[in-house]
Write a structure and sequence with these properties.
It contains two helices and five strands. With 118 residues, it is α+β, with helices and mostly antiparallel strands. Strand 2 and strand 3 form a beta hairpin. It has one domain. The model has no long low-confidence stretch (mean pLDDT 87). Helix content is 17%, strand content 23%. The longest helix is centred in the first third of the chain and has 12 residues. The chain has a five-stranded mixed beta sheet with strand order 4-3-2-1-5. The radius of gyration is 15 Å and the shape is globular.
Length: 118
């Protein structure tokens, strides 16, 4: 399931992507356009020009998963870039985007990593 593994990296394709691309087209874009490995333990997230649809590409075990959230109203608060690029974000930031919030939340509590007891 999506977001299951805490070691999963998340990459956003800033700007807009032609979401007519299928799994194979998005995987080629990840590999050739952004020089990343589509088979890695990562989520690759793309948004359309109107910012009302997202595709999330994920490799699991023996095949790709493609998640396709679509808004009936409103827009995703997607980072706009003139030059397309992949930018790493946290799973927490991705959840904010999926909930309709901006990528950066000034009033959010900072993330705290658990300490191990010796």
């Amino acid at each position: 399931m999506i977001f299951e593994n805490s070691n999963t990296k998340v990459y956003l394709a800033c700007g807009h992507t032609d979401l007519r691309k299928s799994i194979d087209g998005l995987a080629v874009l990840v590999k050739e356009g952004f020089a990343l490995d589509p088979f890695s333990n990562s989520l690759f997230v793309f948004c359309n020009r109107k910012r009302d649809k997202i595709k999330i590409l994920e490799w699991q075990h023996n095949g790709f998963w493609l998640y396709y959230p679509r808004l009936e109203e409103g827009k995703f608060q997607w980072p706009d870039e003139k030059k397309p690029r992949m930018t790493p974000v946290s799973r927490r930031e991705l959840n904010w985007l999926l909930d309709g919030l901006p990528l950066k939340q000034k009033s959010a509590h900072p993330e705290v990593l658990a300490r191990t007891v010796l």
